[in-house]
């Protein structure tokens, strides 16, 4: 890079970091659902690349995310609960710089690459998929190893600034949007209107996030492509709680709840359904808790 070593490279890395370290999450997510493109091969290729960028094993996380949709915010079942109760605020805020995430992700990838699959992973990865998870982890770790070797051989940070480190310095937008999805809301209910949050966002954030700010809608209808979520929102909004009007407004609501949960872990935000909405069916909730995964 001609600007490397000068202040002119800063704007480049600010943009590159968000595109690598944040936009990768929404691309990983949508292609994992198989709804971003019409062809399976395109969804799979982008999913593999985005999984590498976001430092997730593409095999295990495909099954992990399926469990997340099946048992959203069901404690002990959902492997993707970001804010456990009582919430650890410092640890949660550390997500914005990605250091803890990257360290945890690399440890998991290293364990997978050496053939170790944790007991938790075995609860959602089919036995037949485990060899694929091991191979994928070995490919990821080999690329990271080659990048580190190049950085040491050239005695330059540039290779790591292009591969790997963007997951740290560019992940802030991914965390800013992702932590809003379920934070402070109900647990152990199966009605996504009560455990998931839709937030209106500015056009730039909405593009980076690929319309996942319509998160209630996505959880209710996960096979609707991201580009149709605004239309879906307009069609069913009378059946949903009022969305948060902005990112700051959603954070104010969430952090008030999280701070209260530090003193009272049983507290949560009770989303009110409008009079036009179909009521919450508690009998379905009881059935699901009795037989997780139904």
UniProtKB/TrEMBL annotation:
Annotated transmembrane regions: 141-165
Keywords annotated in UniProt: Membrane, Transmembrane, Transmembrane helix
Domain of life: Bacteria
Pfam families: FA_desaturase
Coiled-coil features, chain-numbered ranges: none
Entry-linked InterPro entries: FA_desaturase_dom
Name of this protein: Fatty acid desaturase
Gene Ontology process terms (BP): ceramide biosynthetic process
Fatty acid desaturase domain segment(s): 6-243
Gene Ontology CC annotation, any one: membrane
Keyword Ubl conjugation: no
Keyword tRNA-binding part of the UniProt annotation: no
